[in-house]
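<backbone_tokenisation>
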Amino acid sequence: MPGAMSVRWALLVLLGQRACYGYQLKLELHRRLDGWDVNVGQVYNTLERLVRDGLIARAGESGAGQLLYRTTPRGEAELAQWWETACAPTAQGAAERLTKVALAVSLPGVDALAVLDGELAAVVAADSAAADGVDAAGPGTGGGPGASVAPSVLALARRAEHDARRSWLTGVRAGLVDGTLVADEWAVEQGRRGRPSASTGGDAAP
């Protein structure tokens, strides 16, 4: 399941494509990330932080009066760097990679193949390091009386994780190349939910 950092990047990605209001962003995340039901309060809290950091700004109102947000030039620069930088070989990095790949493939206008190739290269490098760790740990004899086999077991587990990530990324890349994975257009806006702006008589949104 994507984490808090993934929410930040996911919102920045969506706002890099078009101006949106909070509830609309929640709907798009749910649709593009396999039913991920991020709390709308978390969406607005993250929007507040992105505004504070200068990565997004208010961009007027929707037809129903909800506040819209859009990336700033600074936000677009950070977003471009994020697309180009492979995720870290950590649990948080794995969650972020899932978000990145799903959005790259499902959104129109993203160079998904470039994103996949960058992530694949990073996973292959990590896989090589994991293989070295297995070799260094030995065949699991523990190295003698009183030694633990745990290092070998854990090294094998890490290698299996890297192999699974590599297989997943390779499969996604193949789907892009053969056309079985095609970007989705944006959904038609649903409903009128969202925080109203002060000009509509409601409380001012962040």
In short: The chain has two domains: 1-83+186-206, 111-182. The domain at 1-83+186-206 is CATH 1.10.10.10 (Arc Repressor Mutant, subunit A). Confidence is low (pLDDT under 50) at residues 199-206. The beta strands are 56-61, 67-71.
